[in-house]
Amino acid sequence: MTVDIHLPSIMKVGGGAISQLQDMLATLGVKRPCIIADPIMVTLGKVENITSSLSAYANDIQVFSDVMPEPDDRSIDGAVALVKQQQCDGLIALGGGSAIDSAKAIALLATHGGHMRDYKVPRVVSEQSIPIIAIPTTAGTGSECTRVTVISDSQSAEKMLCMGPGLMPKAAILDYELTLSVPYRVAADTGLDALTHAIEAYVSRKSNPFSDQQAIAAMRLIAPHLIAACKNPDDIKAKEAMMLGASLAGLAFSNASVALVHGMSRPLGVHFHVPHGMSNAMLLPLVTAYSLSGSPSKYAEVAHHLGLTCEPGSTGTHEDAHEKLIDFLHHLNRELDVPTMSSFGIEKASYDNIIELMASQALASGSPANNPKVPK
Ligand code: NAD
């Protein structure tokens, strides 16, 4: 089997790596950058730090800092107009997945026009746009290393999945120090999102030898450090592991796929306003339990890579490993205070009238078809 692998062409990794931004802009030939930032990055002074550090390099840096959490198509209109009007030749995306996904959509529309609806799956976005340097400030989505953007359609209330090599950032800066200010709830939701990416990529029907290795490395980094990174924000070792684990998980799923958890969580997120990582976490133990029979040996390997069992096959049975895996996923949700769906107000009665829409949106993303066990 031959697989196409897509990665950012330059990555700077480590505490303080953001100081390398100017070198990256110069390498990419970007002279008129626009910063696409989460508003909290202005409040925290990070945008000002960037503009002043680049003042000798570029004195006309544009800033769009109205990034919307879980962005929709309308939220990026102003930025698309700004980038076109100012003839910006590259974007610096600073924030969590919402800022990086917004930047991907802004670069695409500013370069090629149209509406995000025109680019959603099954269309493959192969057109190259102005380059993006992605600087994540959450350890979660891995969007800095994925050929994916997720933008909601404000008309149809669909979280549109857009995919293709043209959406891969040209460069990424993985500086865990930027995540030290993340509040507990965001650290937990984003960390659980990264874990979901690693597990889904590993068991996906589209997994391959490259994505498997990224997923294994991500699981081995995330499992022992997730709770510490959330409960002790000064634990530098845990924060660094989570940043690296989240990006590796992004590389894994972007070069394989996500599966049923993501297919179902996008409609939950958009219709019930559950943050993306939290909706994945709510579903992960249930969907994993449902899917075990589709790939018993791979799920036993997941348990092993999460540190729950000895080498799969050497001792114990798949059933033992599966039980430990499901227990661990429930334990993580309890430890990290993930609400149950019903405590979040998601009852059967509340989705009865939109269940068909949610199901059709889940199926349209293609993700459920990559699950080890495909729901009928
Ligand atoms: P986010 O970007 O929405 O950020 C969550 C919250 O954390 C926001 O309120 C933000 O202001 C705050 N925040 C971010 N960084 C901070 C910091 N350093 N200090 C303090 N506060 C900070 O959350 P996210 O989970 O990173 O991204 C979610 C979005 O990413 C969703 O729209 C989801 O669909 C998308 N997503 C994309 C991909 C992809 O591959 N493109 C993958 C998974 C999810």
UniProtKB/TrEMBL annotation:
Residues 8-175 form the Alcohol dehydrogenase iron-type/glycerol dehydrogenase GldA domain. InterPro entries: ADH_Fe/GldA (IPR001670), ADH_Fe_C (IPR056798), ADH_Fe_CS (IPR018211), Alcohol_dehydrogenase_Fe (IPR039697). SUPFAM superfamilies: Dehydroquinate synthase-like. Residues 188-376 form the Fe-containing alcohol dehydrogenase-like C-terminal domain. Keywords: NAD, Oxidoreductase. One of its GO terms (molecular function) is metal ion binding. Signal peptide: none annotated. Its cofactor is Fe cation. It holds the Pfam family Fe-ADH. It comes from the Bacteria. Transmembrane segments: none annotated. PANTHER family: ALCOHOL DEHYDROGENASE, ALCOHOL DEHYDROGENASE 4. Belongs to the iron-containing alcohol dehydrogenase family. This is Iron-containing alcohol dehydrogenase. The lineage of its organism: Bacteria, Pseudomonadati, Pseudomonadota, Gammaproteobacteria, Alteromonadales.
